[in-house]
């Protein structure tokens, strides 16, 4: 029975929070709470959760020796020996089969994106994670694919502003994680590619990505036709939240963005404020 908890940890369920991005497109279109869309979004969430877990397992298999040498990661199920490679591989294959079976009930565009995510993520694990620039671009692309997939699953149009904001917003998250990892010398053995970046290179790209994200979000909020200025007002918590996040990163707290966003009360307040204002902007203006 001790194996089951280890297998669950191997699937990294905490990382499933990233799949919340699947809700963004239907939420922005004012369709999230329609009964049909809710069921479809739930299916797409499950499919992405299973496939992403399968990819995490493959990555852990590839990094098993490196993780054993790392103080923080040596307790992972594979690195610690709680789960064997064969058991991990069997679980990964099972998750892939179930994940694509769930996706088979969704539109073909969604299935294509899920397959693209699966292939690209595994290419990352097999070697692309050691290629400067390509590595963080792939991770950011994975976030963007989730957001686009939410629109494809519900047959909703994807706007140019949506693509720009999610794309560069994803880069902000990934680059800040790399900067935090680089600031901690203990992690140099687990992500050697960081040493390939010149001083301040990641900080420069982060600054550019942040500027594009905020500018694009601002242009979107002022471009939509509304009676009430809720979208424009949401610029305040969005900007404050991003600045707070970057400040935390500068203090070395950005290695686990999914945990940081859920633990910092300031970020939680900004997130809820933004969600509430966008809810009013989208749903109150459309009814």
From TrEMBL:
InterPro entries: Prenyltransferase_related, UbiA_prenyltransferase, UbiA_sf. Its main location: membrane. GO terms for cellular component: membrane. The chain crosses the membrane at residues 108-126, 133-152, 158-180, 201-224, 230-248, 260-283. Pfam families: UbiA. It is a multi-pass membrane protein. GO terms for molecular function: transferase activity, transferring alkyl or aryl (other than methyl) groups. It is found in: Membrane. Keywords: Membrane, Transmembrane, Transmembrane helix. PANTHER family: CHLOROPHYLL SYNTHASE, CHLOROPHYLL SYNTHASE, CHLOROPLASTIC. This is Unannotated protein. It comes from freshwater metagenome. The lineage of its organism: unclassified sequences, metagenomes, ecological metagenomes.
């Amino acid at each position: 029975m001790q194996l089951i908890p280890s297998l669950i940890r191997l699937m990294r369920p905490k990382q499933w929070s990233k799949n919340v991005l699947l809700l963004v497109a239907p939420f922005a279109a004012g369709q999230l709470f329609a009964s049909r869309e809710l069921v479809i979004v739930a299916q797409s969430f499950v499919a992405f959760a299973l496939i992403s877990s399968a990819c995490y397992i493959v990555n852990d298999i590839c990094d098993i020796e490196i993780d054993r040498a790392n103080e923080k990661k040596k307790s992972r199920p594979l690195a610690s020996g709680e789960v064997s490679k064969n058991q991990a591989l069997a679980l990964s294959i099972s998750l892939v089969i179930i994940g694509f079976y769930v996706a088979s009930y969704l539109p073909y565009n969604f299935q294509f994106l899920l397959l693209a995510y699966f292939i690209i993520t595994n290419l990352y694990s097999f070697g692309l994670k050691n290629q400067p620039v390509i590595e963080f671009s792939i991770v950011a692309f994975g976030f963007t694919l989730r957001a686009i997939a939410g629109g494809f699953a519900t047959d909703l149009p994807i706007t140019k502003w949506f693509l720009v904001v999610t794309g560069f917003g994803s880069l902000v998250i990934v680059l800040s994680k790399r900067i935090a990892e680089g600031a901690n010398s203990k992690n140099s053995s687990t992500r050697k590619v960081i040493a390939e970046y010149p001083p301040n290179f990641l900080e420069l790209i982060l600054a550019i990505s942040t500027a594009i994200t905020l500018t694009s979000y601002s242009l979107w909020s002022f471009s939509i036709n509304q009676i009430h200025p809720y979208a424009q007002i949401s610029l305040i918590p969005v900007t404050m939240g991003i600045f707070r996040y970057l400040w935390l990163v500068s203090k070395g707290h950005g290695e686990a963005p999914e945990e940081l966003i859920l633990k910092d009360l300031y970020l939680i307040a900004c997130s809820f404020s933004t969600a509430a204002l966008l809810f009013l902007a989208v749903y109150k203006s459309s009814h």
